[in-house]
Amino acid sequence: MNNLFTALIARRIVATVSAFLVVAIACTAGIWQLNRAESKIALAANLLARQQLPILSANISPLTLEDATERRMIARGQYIPEAAIWLDNRPRPIPPAGSNTSQSGFYLMMPLQLAGRDEILWVNRGWAPRNNENRESLPPVKTPSKVATIEGIVFAHPGKVYALGEGQAVIDAGKPRIEQNFDLRAEGKLRAWAQSPFILREVDTGIDDGLLREWAPLTTGVDRHYAYAFQWFALAVCGFLFWLITGLRQYRRQDMNGDQG
User: Fold this and answer.
1) Pairing state of beta strands 72-79 and 104-114?
2) Which of 83, 171, 201, 251 has the smallest count of CB within 10 Å of its CB?
3) Which long-range contacts (CB under 8 A, 24 or more apart) does 234-238 make?
4) Is 196 within 8 Å of 119 (Cβ atoms)?
């Protein structure tokens, strides 16, 4: 037993420490991937539970983000299309059937003047494809010119992408506003508007306005997290087996040499 311990560990300190680090790092990464998958499942379950609650109305009384987040909501008002913001570099939420590539496009953020209230509600109206040849050539979108009723789900923001050098927004009436991210507070200060402290992500109700509203579920990517976790745990097992097998081979060679001696 002492000879086996010596062959596996005492004479292979560097290999043993290296194997331990590989196993520890791989197991940690695998557990992190499992936790990410479980977090997405829990978030999706929480979202589904909140959507079963009674539908809120944005026109009745002011609501806080805590009260309204992830709840269904109906809002009645008139769009302000000249203040629209196009959020760039947004992949299509659900790729078309048979396609594995992610198509880039825009989210259309548009303020809605709530009927009967002096308050603006920002609406994520949906996704539209981008013109790859001309970034400022925006897709055609139909906007109601009269008071409309919007149905959607409340979120704190429309999602963020990594962006470099973002500065203060500048309003140029001659150009469309194409931004990387949306800052609700900054928009309120920029236009001195009274705003709802959340956005409304419009759901698909069959309206043909040139926008897609097939939103990806929160559990998207769970299978990928499980696959990554399996790969990390497999790496940990392979690292341990490599350390063990090479150690046993070295022990056997030493034992054979000892017998011959």
Assistant:
1) antiparallel
2) 171
3) 235/22, 235/26, 236/22, 236/23, 236/26, 236/27, 236/30
4) yes
| Confidence band of 181 (pLDDT split at 50, 70, 90) | very high
3-state secondary structure of 220: coil
User: Which residues contact residue 91 at a Cβ distance below 8 angstroms, ignoring those fewer than 6 apart?
Assistant: 102, 103, 104, 105
Mean predicted confidence (pLDDT) in 203-228: 85
Is the Cβ–Cβ distance between 126 and 152 less than 8 Å?
no
Q: In the predicted model, is pLDDT for residue 118 greater than 50?
A: yes
| Per-residue confidence (pLDDT) for residue 171, from 0 to 100 | 62
Amino acid letter, 191: R
| Cβ atoms within 10 Å, residue 58 | 26
Burial level of 195, CB count in 10 A (0-12/13-18/19+)? middle
The share of the chain scoring above pLDDT 90, in percent, equals: 49
User: Would the pLDDT of 51 be above 50?
Assistant: yes
pLDDT for 261: 46
DSSP class of residue 94 equals S
Enter the DSSP assignment of 55.
P
Coil, helix or strand at residue 213 = coil
**C-alpha span between 74 and 57 (Å, rounded):** 5
Q: What is the pTM of this model?
A: 0.72
Tell me the C-alpha distance between 90 and 180, whole Å: 9
Mean pLDDT of the chain: 85
d(CA 120, CA 245): 68
